[in-house]
Amino acid sequence: MKNRKILIADDDLNIIASLKYMLSEENFDILAMTTPEAVLENLKRESFDLVLLDMNFQQDTTSGVEGLKLVEAIQQVDDQLPIIVMTGWATIDIAVDAMRAGAKDFIQKPWNNERLITAINTQIKIAKIDKKLQRLSQENKLLSAQSFPQESGIIAQSPVMKTLLSSLNELAKSDMSILLTGDNGTGKSMLASYVHQHSSRANNSFVPVNMGAIPESLFESEMFGHLKGAFTDAKENRIGRFEMAEQGTLFLDELANIPMAQQAKLLRVLEEQKFEVVGSSKSQHADVRIISATNSDLPKAITEQQFRQDLFYRLNTIQLRVPSLKERVEDIAPLAEHFLQLYSVKYNISAPQLSIEAINKLQQYPWPGNIRELSHLMEKILFTCKKATITGRDLLLDEGLGAQSSSGKLINAATIDDASLSMEDIEKFSLINRLKHYRGNATETAKSLGLSRSAFYRRLSKYGLD
């Protein structure tokens, strides 16, 4: 565990020497300043766990006014940094004023060593808890907005999946970066979470980020956080994804969708393990394990100068391909039964059984949408099949199946000219079929439709296809 860092502010060199000696014995790193200006300058450049400051900086001043102004100024720089004030002219009024200004505790000179150390340890601990609670609150908001399925459990009866899980179990013991490739809907996000859960970082956060859904203008704010007032809409401090994932795992999904201009910023963080919150010049350490995923051909994107080669090598310590569902025939039936049971509990509906005919049909279907498509099908079947046993006919698994209209009609190539279809029905059908054509590759699909990344993802979200 790294030493905790304290900034001491006092104009008395003897006091500074005494505090340095005592606190160094307690494994604190100490930096001391003798003027308010020097204190503020260092706070803008470096991170500290606590500030211990005198209330007076001139020999003939005992009012505490200087100290109060400095407490307020520190709050402007970092309102989460704990402050303990000290003075040899202790009065209740000064103590109350200091606490109102933002100080967390008040120590009178000459101090009691044990009391001072306890106060410092307590305030540092409280600050860490507060920061963790804030991080968890923002992380919960983030996770609640995620659109990918959150079903737990990985089914692996097929040889190809058993081999993949065996590799992931070994890699989980390390801290190396992992790049997962494969078609959309194959469960890359779940496998990334699986690695995290089986790693030494399991007690800390797993933070997934859909890189394709982050507007380029908000990239730094989303990834590194921002301070209140850093830009027009920054009405409060925001913790970025790197800080959320501190000592945990950051999962970068849709990796190929990171704009070139932002790839350099991400590369710098990965190389130096440091980043700056937007609006701050202080560097923060990034102790984060990176797992990333893509369904794109990154070597091709590098050749076309759409992806940085140095970033690719930084993320590609080891690369594993996640097989498509049609390559894991042995897993299709147990996965379908798993989803039926899962949605049965969710909706409090009795789950029907799959017939042999239905299982055979599921195993013969090509599954262009992979596991996500199977999950959605089982959820729909739970409501459309009113029998105890699901037959092959109940599945409606025609390869030419397109989409369901808002009125419940089936839309495919044969019915697309139906005059009762709305523009939204036709657009949804077109999105589904174009996605199938490009095997779930979001970048290629968006490009073929002449849509920007953000416009494409908005449409996916609108129709529940994301």
TrEMBL record:
SUPFAM superfamilies: CheY-like (SSF52172), Homeodomain-like (SSF46689), P-loop containing nucleoside triphosphate hydrolases (SSF52540). Residues 119-146 form a coiled coil. GO terms for biological process: phosphorelay signal transduction system; regulation of DNA-templated transcription. Residues 154-383 form the Sigma-54 factor interaction domain. It comes from the Bacteria. Keywords: ATP-binding, Coiled coil, Nucleotide-binding, Phosphoprotein, Transcription, Transcription regulation. The keyword Coiled coil applies. Pfam families: AAA_lid_14 (PF25601), HTH_8 (PF02954), Response_reg (PF00072), Sigma54_activat (PF00158). The modification 4-aspartylphosphate is found at D54. Residues 5-124 form the Response regulatory domain. The keyword Cytoplasm does not apply. One of its GO terms (molecular function) is ATP binding. InterPro entries: AAA+_ATPase, AAA_lid_NorR, CheY-like_superfamily, Homeodomain-like_sf, HTH_Fis, P-loop_NTPase, Sig_transdc_resp-reg_receiver, Sigma_54_int. Transmembrane segments: none annotated. This is Sigma-54-dependent Fis family transcriptional regulator. The lineage of its organism: Bacteria, Pseudomonadati, Pseudomonadota, Gammaproteobacteria, Alteromonadales.
